[in-house]
Amino acid sequence: MSRILSIKSLVIPLVLILLTSISGAQSIYVSPSGNDQNPGTKVKPVASFIRAQLLAREISKTKSAEVVFAKGIYYLPQTVVFNSQDSRNSETGITYRSEVEGQAVLSGGSLLDLKWQPFENGIFVAEVQGNPVIDQLYINGKRQRMARFPNAVPGKNVFDTWELSHQAVKNPSDDPLTPERIARWKNPEGGYIHAMHSSLWGDMHWIIKGINADGSLNSEGGWQNNRPSPMHPVYRIVENIFEELDAPGEWFYDTKERKLYFMPEPGTTIRTAKVEIVRLRHLIEFNGSKNSPVKSVHLKGFLFRHAARTFMDNKEPLLRSDWTVYRGGAVVYNGATNCSITDCEFDQVGGNAIFVNNYNWRINIRGCYIHHSGANGVAFVGDPATVRNPIFRYGKQDFQNIDRIPGPKGDNFPEDCMVEECLITMTGRDEKQTAPVHISMSHKIRINHCSIYDVPRAGININEGTFGGHIIENCDVFNTVLETGDHGSFNSWGRDRFWTPDVNETVREVTKEPGLPFLDILEPNIIRNSRWRCDHGWDIDLDDGSTNYQIYNNLLLNGGLKMREGYHREAINNIIINNGLHPHVWYQNSGDVFKNNIVFKSYQPAIMDRTTAKDGKWGKDLNYNFFVANQKVMNRFSTNDCDKNSGNGDPLFIDPVKGDFV
Known about the structure:
By secondary structure, the protein is mainly beta. It folds into 3 domains: 3-109, no CATH class; 115-274, no CATH class; 301-359 and 372-658. The chain is 5% helix and 34% strand. The strands form 7 sheets. It has a 24-stranded parallel sheet that branches. It starts with a helix and ends in a 14-residue tail after the last strand. 50% of the residues are buried. Mean pLDDT is 94; it is low at 1-23.
């Protein structure tokens, strides 16, 4: 029996791990000026993470331990891997920490010593020793741009070039793929094409292999979206092409000649600048298993930098989702329990910042600042082999042959994990079909007191109903869906075993078997006590089949609440400013409840005539709401048995101009 079935009736609170130095704990010290031949004392520290880890394994498991890193940069020669040898029990855990918070940098890069020479048109060139792969370049700690077209424009969103417009007009002079522009490139092999989905459902990427005989590009890729489309006709760029090196902050590395070309920004003294490149995809991995997990290893106060981009490795489709995923990141958890990351910063890492992969239990991420990551901020993704009747594309369900057993087939997924008191912003710098917090095939993930903003798509995304029990509370999520469309600050899908795109077929099957919608989502997802704002979509978007949600005590500031094709959703005691409820394609006998809310606009239904019950009633209870509108607006849908006891008028907020909606 899986963990989810054996413990679902129990209340198991997440414990807070004591991460500060414990009196009597045995300490190992690390310093950039240390020596790995030293014993690791305060006076004689070691120099490397790996050596400190080996010394820590020698400390008795009956004693608490800590490894203290002096301020400085630690360029990791290889990924640090924790396994069961590093495990300790929860009473004597081990903490790897920065002596001064944020001052110990764990880097997956290398420092280059270059002799820059003027080249032409403000460009400098330097020969690079060895044969490194240079995918990212940092000058004085700031990530620079590969040579690209069109160039970046300050203040723009989509690929840092355009403002988002769903009616974008193609300008031939901005198209990077015209025959005339391609003809300018002597050797574009190794360049990239980045393009938005034609419906703005995320993005896709290709690597350029060369130029075909007809002058078109030979490229490979486009697998990063699980509902594929042609590339967007406007929102697309090329990068890593020498002839496009024409703007300050751009660079190009000639791999054959081993020459690095760079156009410094004004004010940059390039000859004395610190130059860093990226080598590692993953900085730290926790590699255990259910039977032999990594236990009670904690990271505290580090600054993580210089992890490689992974957009070409983002290939794995998620369940009936629009998304694909790469199972990696700056920090990766595989088979860990009671581990944590606290008070750490993830600065400009190229892919996911933190990836919690498959079996993990009680992974706590607290007080972290995650910004400018290439992909997701924090991702929890389980094993599709634990899902009964997994389907990986949008298509139809085979109701005659589906497994009727509730819940998962195993426990190879994240469970009882937390993201708390984190600030996550500017994620998705390279991959747009991502989120600051992404959840798929997981159970009981809690997101509490987080601020999330300035991101290309959803702030928080729940990919499907498997296996529910998530709690999102006390969060601020705003300025989202900046580069995409048809989404929300919160987004979910529920394309589980009960769901098929044919609405009438779903209704027929659920009428015969009312338990079908709850085979995969065993406990409700709760969204409460949070503020949401989306100016390019819905504040909360419960999309295709999202089922078993409790939404209460939220403040929705612009985009309203969308409920589409699901069962047993309750929205109670919310305030929806300048908008209202968007009921989309509700099923007969959906069990949906919308009551005791303050709303500013009338309901905005979509295709409800196909799915309403024979008596015309919408849901279980749409009533006792207060409309900041006239009586006519409130009564518009009375024929659907809505709002017989609702009221209207002035809500008498204390000071709405200043955001006080009490």
